[in-house]
What we know:
Elements: H1 2-13, H2 16-56, E1 58-60, E2 71-79, E3 82-90, E4 111-114, H3 116-124, E5 135-139, E6 151-156, H4 159-162, E7 169-174, H5 186-212, H6 216-228, H7 233-269, H8 285-306, H9 308-312, H10 314-318, H11 329-347, H12 360-390, H13 396-407, H14 410-440, E8 446-452, H15 458-465, E9 470-477, E10 490-491, E11 494-496, H16 499-505, E12 508-510, E13 518-521, E14 530-531, E15 533-539, E16 542-548, E17 554-558, E18 569-571, E19 580-582, E20 585-592, H17 595-608, E21 614-616, H18 621-659, H19 661-669, H20 674-711, H21 722-740, H22 751-755
Amino acid sequence: MRELLLGLRLLLGSGRGTRVRFLLMAVGGSLGVCCLAFVLTIPAILDARDGRAGDRAPVTFPGAPKHDRTVVLVRSDPHGAKPFHRVFLAPGSEDTPDAPPGLRGLPKAGEVFVSPALHDQLEREPALKGLLPGREAGLIAPSGLTDPNELYAYVGTERSELTGFGATRALKSFGTGYPPVPAVEPSTLDILRFTLATLVLLPLGVFLSVCARLSAASRNRRLAALRLLGLSVKGTQRVNAAETVVAALVGAILGLGEYWVLNQVVSRTGLPGLKWYPDDGALSASTLAICLLGCPALAWFVGRASARAAATQPLNTRRTAVPRAPRMWGGLLLVTGLGIVVGYCATGFTDNPAQSSGVNTLLVPLGVLLTGIGLVLTMPLLSYALARRLARTRSLTLNLAMRRNEVEPGSAMRVVTGLVLLVFSASLAQGVLVEEGQILRSKSPSQEYGLSLSDLSEKQQERLREIPELSATAMVMEPPFDAEDEGPRIPARALVATCGQLSKLVRHVEGCADGQVLRLTDPAVTEEPIAPSVVHLKQGDRRKALRIDVPVREVRYSGYDVTSVDTPVLYPPSKLPADAVPTAGTLVLASASDPGTVRTVLDRIGTIVPTAEVDPVGINIDALQQITVIETLLALGMIMGLVIGVAAFLVSVTDRAVERRPQVTALTLMGARPRTLRRVQSAQVVLPLALGLGLALVTGKLAESSYLVTGGGEIFWDGAGVPLLVLAAVGVLVAAVIGTLPLVGRRIDPELIRRD
């Protein structure tokens, strides 16, 4: 306790510089703790969403509804790029269940309870009320919604209105204990947690270590003086740890306060595809314990380790003896991690690549983790080797810069490691996005949307065809269904499209001729017997019958796996009567299949025809929402990693500049020009950073490829992400050069040499 009190007295009475350093340590630590709290709270936010979704999920009796029980019918439709959920309830007199979460009682016939977001949407789009028969009787409370942006409604209706639907069931209760559709699949959530830990926690550990070792040289000289005055080795380490622990504790308290403010702001504004209630992001007991106990504990160990040399060899510290070369064990971790990663990459060249099962589920993350940690611990060794090699040149700038890095190789780790880890983690994040894209997104380059023609007016059809993101439009004419006419042959359906439109809807077309009725044949699909049919057209106020014969001339095409082009007849638009539209059929729209375009097209369709049912062929709206959440969380992790990396770089570079003022002053008095000193400062930072970034690019892409190989997808080598990473690395180097230029001051104070 005596040494701890001595450390606090030295902290308060050692001058303004010490107090400023303490403030920087506390503020820097608060930034790291805020990011740490956010990462630790993300799983709790997702669990809260899934918990409320499970609590409101209907539990039904098997089979068709019997007796006079309450019946339920659940409808989930896309409204733009968002799911729109409607729960129709017809209360009965037998075994009446309790109300779902968010409601005080079951809605009566004619009553509609909506979410606040749906209430606002109804004011903007009154046509949506057609999907909610009845009057709005109230709002659903937050306990019954997954997030504030959810479109959800409970519709009370008569029992007779729900008969005839195959999905109608007798309602037993609400609450299954698990969500029907989780915000993020459990297997994906585990990968997401690991990726966020790599993106944020590894740079965070480096950043907190940097904050705990600010002004390490001057502090070591002060500690060496205390040791020479008779303080014990452990006592000297405790004196140093007192300052770092108090700074870490103050920083942790400030960081938790910063997180509370950030949670209140971000939860109300929301992120793309992700919004939550403030209570969902409340700090848990485990998060508080990790931040309030873990960060000071880390500072304690870092403080003791940084003071070990000053406590055991005080004379060497006071006389600034040359330290020993960095050890090799950090390089062994990097080699071990790369060995695992490269081994899995090599299986990608074989006929049987490794799968993510069994022991591989542990070895792949272990290889990535060892590679990242080894990359951090190898930076001093690489900086030392680079400095010794370049210091032999005749360049004065390189000689001055590299000799200093040779004497202090550990400073390179504190300065550049945060940015190096950011580039390494960015590769892994790209791999997660590529893998999830292979699982959740359509493999077809074309995405189709089907809308029933009976739900669309002629003006709406015209507006839909004018959506700028569309690549093609067509119509499918359906003959009227008549059960009495069923026979061994299927009535012909016709695709109304030109050859150009057809070529944009399928992979390949052969033998097409505009202006002719042709038979569509896909060699990969078994043909069924087709019979001529009659479709009905609407031409103004008149109705007209159109016979569809099955022609002999064929046009061969190869379609996508999931498509609307499965009709036996291609009918040219020029043969339809002027201004005639089919009374029954489907309007087919097609666009590119990338998620951004799909979301935009769905939003535009929802704006034009909010009440129409849209069939996004082969796509799951819930999966589209899920990948949006994943992209948002990874982008958030990248932003936090960038903030931590840049903060660590700025703090370290500034601290090094302050620590080296005596050496810069001495060189200035000896005749060194400011331009030369600026080049020296830049070279000391930029050269180790360039070496680290190059190594991070290589190891990051290998780690990404090992993940993609074991993921089971079709893409093993993500070459598309390389230019972006290279551009980011170049931008980091340019920013590093600019950041080091102002660190050579113009004011020369010879007193600094006397003090040194």
